[in-house]
Amino acid sequence: MEGAGFRKELVGKLLRLHFQDSGTRVSGDALQLMAELLKIFVTEAAVRGARQAQAEDVALVGVDQLEKVLPQLLLDF
Q1: What is the Cα gyration radius of the chain?
Q2: Each residue's pLDDT tens digit, 21-70
Q3: Are 70 and 42 in contact (CB under 8 A)?
Q4: Alpha helix segments (H runs only) across 1-77
Q5: What is the reported pTM?
Q6: Which residue spans traverse the membrane (predicted)?
Q7: How far apart are CA 77 and CA 48, in angstroms?
């Protein structure tokens, strides 16, 4: 599935927020890999949320549907 993704700069900033050592560096390949992982995770969350909304006969996916699929999604990843 092609489409929008996460910019490597954004992924780098998100990762640095959680580093304990300010001197930790991340390679370009690692940033690209994390960006792809985030893209897959978000896409999967959207698909599962849409399926949950269909099961509930709801026209729009909302926070309620995402909250219902999140526990299993996190276990799968």
Answers
A1: 16
A2: 989 999 999 999 999 999 999 999 999 999 999 999 999 999 999 999 99
A3: no
A4: 8-16, 28-55, 63-76
A5: 0.81
A6: none
A7: 13
